Amino acid sequence: MIVLEIGKMSGNKLKKTILEKIEHFRSDVMVPAGPGEDSAVIDLGDSLLVVSSDPITGAEKNAGYLAVNVACNDIAAAGAEPFGIQVVLLLPPALAEKKAEDLMKEIVSTAKTMDIEVLGGHTEITDLVQKPIITVTALGKAKKAELTSSSAAEAGDILYISKGMGIEGSYILASDYQDHLIKKGVSSEAIAKVSGYLKLLSVIPESRIARKNGVKAMHDVTEGGVYGAIAEMAAASELGFIIEKDKFSLQPEVEEICSKLDLDPAALISSGAMLMAAPPDVDLKSVFAENEIVIMRVGRLIKDGVYIEEKGVKKEFKIPEKDELWKFIEKMNK
């Protein structure tokens, strides 16, 4: 018997186990379920409806805030504006009613500040979970001319990410495992800086800029980090890629946390960063600099092959099967 591993299912396994069982047959579904596609797009005639679902399972503090932003980031990556969410809460019996109420208040207030309405959902108490599991389905509207999808990328496109690496992962580590970080020698200054990353989690601003400035494909950087996002975009576009590690740069606080915990920041969950593919002649850095958003080149798409360039040497690359956050959590739980 093959046992499933904790964390996001790897691309090949996901395709074989799940995606190959889904049949695409409706003509109004423009972007169906597929490798590297986090949102479905439905043609309503005069507009497009974009739908995406995401769970929060690895975080505890501010989980409601994270849940809303992570789901809506998928909508933004498709070039759409989120307008509503549905929420499924699976709650353990031991959870106090007040905590359940506070969690829902956090979800509602987060959505409202983003001009997004909570449309409904489902709440269930079950002894099959030990802590709350939140699944948010986000709905968005898109103009046909501004629609982007991971499959729209082309060979030769340059790959950029916004803000930096390890945004969400570093925040979760600092919020939920602060005592452990201190024991490992992480400075209080680094923990304080990363704790402020909560305000960086939305990629809606990047989406609004990118879709009007030559970006053809976007993907939010979630589980698997930068490596995972690049692999998913390439899979959706049926392309290969070269990761340009020599061009990586890290925020000092992220570098400190990852080095003390022996984590690879490029394989660490990073909601708040947007992966964007643009033609070489598009000066994306200048466009984003004008809007005071830092972007960093991380690679390029090619016809086939999976490679990494480091210290001027190109070699074949194997994408890590598990996000660094899950590896850390598993180690802590042993």
Q: How does this model look, in words?
A:
- The chain has 334 residues and is an alpha+beta fold.
- It has 2 domains: 11-146, PurM-like, N-terminal domain (60s Ribosomal Protein L30, Chain: A), CATH 3.30.1330; 150-333, PurM-like C-terminal domain (Phosphoribosyl-aminoimidazole Synthetase, Chain A, domain 2, Alpha-Beta Complex).
- It has 11 helices and 13 strands.
- The strands form 2 sheets. Strands 8-10-7-11-9-12-13 form a 7-stranded mixed β-sheet, with helices on both faces.
- The model has no long low-confidence stretch (mean pLDDT 92).
- It holds the Pfam family AIRS.
Architecture blueprint of SSEs:
Elements: H1 11-17, E1 29-31, E2 40-43, E3 48-56, H2 63-77, E4 81-91, H3 97-113, E5 117-125, E6 133-142, E7 158-162, H4 167-176, H5 178-183, H6 188-195, H7 204-210, E8 217-220, H8 225-237, E9 240-244, H9 252-261, E10 274-278, H10 284-290, E11 295-302, E12 306-310, E13 313-316, H11 324-333
Parallel strand pairs: 4-5, 9-12
Antiparallel strand pairs: 1-2, 2-3, 3-6, 4-6, 7-10, 7-11, 8-10, 9-11, 12-13
Helix pairs in contact: 2-3, 2-7, 4-6, 6-9
Residues in helix, %: 25-40%
The appropriate CATH architecture of the largest domain is Alpha-Beta Complex
Strand content: 15-25%
Largest sheet: 7 strands, mixed
The low-pLDDT segments are none
- Helix-strand string: HEEEHEHEEEHHHHEHEHEHEEEH
Overall form: globular
Determine the N-to-C terminus distance. 23 Å
Radius of gyration: 19 Å
Q: How many domains, as an integer?
A: 2
Instruction: Note the total helix count.
Output: 11
CATH topology group of the largest domain: Phosphoribosyl-aminoimidazole Synthetase, Chain A, domain 2
Main-sheet strand order equals 8-10-7-11-9-12-13
The CATH superfamily title of the largest domain? PurM-like C-terminal domain
Query: CATH top level of the largest domain?
Result: Alpha Beta
